[in-house]
Structure formats: C-alpha cells, structure tokens
Write a sequence for this structure.
C-alpha cells in the first residue's frame, strides 16, 4: 500500500562528541542541508561535550543543537534526537560522513509502502590513505562501511548500517528507541544498537521490512587508525561481544541471521576468489585470506566470551538470590 509523498517529512540527526572531527562534522551538516528536498528539521546532538555544543551553536546555521539528555554514548544521543524529532521519518547520518546528492530522497522513497519501517543506504569508504592490500572487502563493516555480501540493488535486510539509516519516528519511539546499554561510548568499538532496534521494529509489525537502498549513498571518512591490523582484530572481537548482547535480547534466530549467512556463504566465496587470485600470481591474496580467517575467529571468540560472561552473571545472580 502506498502513502502520499507529502507525508514523508524528514528529521535529519547527526550525533557528535569530539572537536577533533569539527571539519568533518561541518561537512556532514552541509551535505545533509544541501539535499533536494532538504530536511524539514535538522538536529545536531552533542554527546557529553559542552564546549563542542557551544561552538556548534555559535558557528552553525540551519541546525538545532541539542545536548545528549540520556546516558552518555551514541545510543543516548540518538534517543535524544528521536524524542526531539517532529517529522514522521528520522534519518541518521554519522558526523564523519558526507551525503551524496540524492541521498535523502532515495533513503525515504521505500516508505511509500506502509510495510517499510526502516531503511539504510550505501556507505562508501573515503580513505585517508591507500587501504592496506590485506583488508578484505567482506569486512568493510569493520570501518562502518558497506561490505561485500550486501544486496547490490534495493532489497530487504535485517538491519541498516548505523552511519546511514532512517526509520519511522513513531514506530521507533513506541519500540523503545535505542538500547542505551548498547553502542559506542566515545572511541570504544562496541555497536549493534541499530541491529537490535531494527529487530524490535520488524517484530512489532508482522510483515514489515527494513530496506537497503544503494542509491542512498554517503562517503564515510576512514582514518588511518582504522586501517591497522590491531584495530581490525579489536573491532571484530567487540562486534562478536555486541552480537552476544543482541542474541540475549532478541534470540539467536534474528540475532545471528546475517552472521550465519556471512560465515557460511560470503566468506567461503571470498576465500575461493582469493585462491583463484593467488593462482594468477596475486600474492596479496594470501594476507586477505588470513585476515578473513582472523576476523572470523576474533568475532566468534568475542561472541562466545560474551555469552559465557552472560551465563556467569546469571549464575551469580541465582546464587545471590534469597
């Protein structure tokens, strides 16, 4: 079923926390304000940084600046934007991402169907330096970007990528918003708060869907610190731990749906592709294969550790019960 285009007013929210990204944040704001049609409401939510909030209020125009009213962290900041949104659709853009022309129009187009509760767009890496040859494209999620294994055209997914996503405002509020116990706080690499919320959104409305829209594209700045092998391993480990939280809250069927496919289909295909590349003389195929296996093992280790920690806490709570 379709709904009129005039109903699709959008609130755009950018969350930020550090002045080190000031130039990138200004570029993100400019890219979002330059959309056609432009957003009906624009919110910049500052997390735990009064000096940054004051600077944004002084120097930015066309933007309502808010300070995080919830627990410190990205989830609390996003919920602050969610509660302040006045439009039926809310779109989130990372503070270090630039929206391409046509981003917002493409991101909201699927809402013509009442069954669509959230959308996500493509996130392309904007490299600060040449990416290392060992970095497999199946693991671009490590740097917050679209990865090989996502649909190449408009298609249904379990959850969007947090750097570039939207959802129905009322539905997200009624579902409880983002879980403030999950997600990033400052520079830590935990995540999956958008995954857990997307699962709740579709669970509340049978037959509903989250749509991936490649044409709703943004360019995501990737700093050199995210191209180190140590960051790669740490990010995979923390992603596994975050998935343990999702499974605890949403169950294994939904919580590991994409991960099972990635481990069973996408990564084996990548290894086969790299094996063929190696036969053609491409020696960089070997480190990509090793990185894929290391990333998979690290994510699995983080997940298993997280589940064991959850079980230990439950045992401890049971032992302390009167």
């Amino acid at each position: 079923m379709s709904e009129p285009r005039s109903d699709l007013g959008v609130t755009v929210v950018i969350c930020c926390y550090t002045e080190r990204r000031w130039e990138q944040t200004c570029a993100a704001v400019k890219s979002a304000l330059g959309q056609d049609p432009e957003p009906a409401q624009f919110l910049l939510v500052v997390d735990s940084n009064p000096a940054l909030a004051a600077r944004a209020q002084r120097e930015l125009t066309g933007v309502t600046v808010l300070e995080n009213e919830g627990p410190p962290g990205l989830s609390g900041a996003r919920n602050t934007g969610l509660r302040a949104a006045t439009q039926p659709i809310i779109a989130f853009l990372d503070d270090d991402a630039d929206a391409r022309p046509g981003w917002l129009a493409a991101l909201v187009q699927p809402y013509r169907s009442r069954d669509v509760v959230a959308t996500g767009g493509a996130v392309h890496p904007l490299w600060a330096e040449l990416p290392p040859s060992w970095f497999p494209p199946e693991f671009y999620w490590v740097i917050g970007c679209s990865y090989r294994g996502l649909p190449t055209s408009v298609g249904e997914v379990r959850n969007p990528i947090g750097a570039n996503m939207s959802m129905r405002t009322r539905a997200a509020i009624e579902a409880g918003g983002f879980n403030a116990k999950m997600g990033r706080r400052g520079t830590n690499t935990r995540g999956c708060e958008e995954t857990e919320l997307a699962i709740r959104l579709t669970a509340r409305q049978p037959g509903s869907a989250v749509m991936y829209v490649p044409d709703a594209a943004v360019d995501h700045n990737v700093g050199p610190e995210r191209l180190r092998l140590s960051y790669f391993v740490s990010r995979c480990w923390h992603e596994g731990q975050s998935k343990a939280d999702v499974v605890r809250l949403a169950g294994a069927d939904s919580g590991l749906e994409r991960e099972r496919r990635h481990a069973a289909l996408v990564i084996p295909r990548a290894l086969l592709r790299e094996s063929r590349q190696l036969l053609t003389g491409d020696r960089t195929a070997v480190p990509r294969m090793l990185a894929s296996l290391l990333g998979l093992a690290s994510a699995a280790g983080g997940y298993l550790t997280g589940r064991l920690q959850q079980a230990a806490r439950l045992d401890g709570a049971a032992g302390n019960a009167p």
